[in-house]
Amino acid sequence: MSDIVNVGICTVDAIGQTIDDYPVPGGLRLFDQLTLTTGGNAMNCTIGLRKMGIPCDVIVKVGQDALGDFVVSEANRYGAGTQGIIRTNAIHTPYTFVCVLTGGQRSFFHTMGSNGTLCYDDIDMDIVRTAKFCFVTGTMVMETLDGQQTGRLLKEAQDAGVKTLLDTVYLDAAPVELWHKNIDPVLPVLDYFIPSQPEAKAITGLNDPSDMAKAFQSRGCKNVVIKLDTAGAFCRDADGQESTVPAYQITNVVDTTGAGDSWCAGFLAGLRDGLAIDEAALLGNAVAAHCIQAPGASTGIAPIEEIRAFQKATPLRA
Length: 318
Known about the structure:
This protein has 10 helices and 14 strands.
C-alpha cells in the first residue's frame, strides 16, 4: 500500500485512425490502424504518478472480461498497487471507441459500464485508511458513488488522518441541480477541491476564480485550486491566502488529452513531498506541460528528476 490512492473512473480506449465517415447500414469502411490504451481520470493519474516514479494505488471497477484484464495488466505493468481493483461479472468494463479524422479531430462512442456501478461497498477501506492522500476523480460520471457515497468515503478517510482531494468531469449539459447533488455533500470533507475553471463556473455560476474558491470554502472545503488551462492555476488556501501560479512557456503542443489528470498527478506528488499549495500547483503545471508535448494521456510524462530540471530551465508564461 502507498501514500497515494486514486479512486474513480477508468476506461479502455480503442483509437481508430483514420475515420472520416461512417458506413450506411450493412456497409463497410476500412481504416489504417487501431491503438488500444487505458484511459479515465483515475487510471491516467495513476500511470502519470508511476511514470514520475511515485508509488500509488488505484481503485477502479472493471468487468470480468478481456478489457478488464487489459486494465489490470496495464496497472501492473506500470507498477501501481492493484489490490483495490474490483472485478465484476455483472457488467462490462467501460469502453470508448475513438474515431480520429484526417485533421486530428476526434469523435467518441462510449459505454459507461462498471464506472456507473462503482459504490462505497466495493472499496477496500483498509487501502484508503493507510494512505496519506485519497484522491477521488471522475465525479459526475460515477452514478452510484457520486454525492453521498463519495462524502462517506472521504469522511472516513479524513477521520483516519488521510488528506482528501476531488476532481470532476466537465459535463457541459449537466443541470446545476446535478452538480450540487454530487458536489455539496463532499465539500465539508475535502482538504483540496481541484476543478477546472469551466467546472467551477458550472457549480457556482461565478466567473472570478477568487469568488469561486470562496464559495467552495463557504460550503466547507479547506483548500481550493482552480485549473486555468494556459493561464496556469489559481490557489486559495485554508487561511485565505491567494496566488495565481503561471503555466510554463512551451511551443510544441501536440495533444492535450489527459492534461488535467497529469496536472493532478504532479499536484499530488508535490503534496506528498511537503510542498505548499502553490508550489505543488506549479509542479502540476510542469507535469501537464510534459503531457501535452506528446500524443496520449501519459506518453510525455518523465521521471520526477527530469521534471524538476525542466522547472529550473523553462521560463514561466508572463
